[in-house]
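JOB MANIFEST
job_type = single_chain_structure
chain_count = 1
residues = 162
[input]
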Amino acid sequence: MGDANVVETVDIAAPLALVWWAVSHPENYGRWSPENRSAIRVGGRSGPWQVGDEFIGSNHAWVSWSTRCRVAIAQPEQVFAFDVTHTSLPISRWQYSLSVPTPGVVRVTESWFDHRVGVVGLVTRRFGLPVGRGHDAAVRNRATMRDTLQAMKSDLEARAAA
């Protein structure tokens, strides 16, 4: 896989296990994201998310839309990533990478990889226009990623302090 199209990072003063729980359970994302409303696991499985697990992500910006997502990487307390499709067309990969730069602080790096390439990419990029992506999804994603990470930081630091 090539370089990410957008990368944003935040340091969170919280235990690594708590931050891992936050990023490795997509049903949490709606608490922090300005766009994501919910993630519903497909197939009735429960417990820790594993590679191959799927969920339906419901989102809202200008309009509402849903995507099908599949966990691509689940390395405990290190990396959690999922691939997004819409009507079976590849859209993107979202990835959360964790590191501990100093004791008690977890660095969360959120990355977005655009999978809308070639002729199929021309078609799928047009899907992004009505949902507020504009002509450059990276610009919109950078803003929402910053908001998401700041909300996650506030929430997890409050939980850690409680």
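[summary]
The CA atoms of residues 36 and 59 lie 4 Å apart.
The beta strands are 6-12, 36-42, 54-60, 64-75, 79-86, 89-102, 105-114.
exit_status = 0
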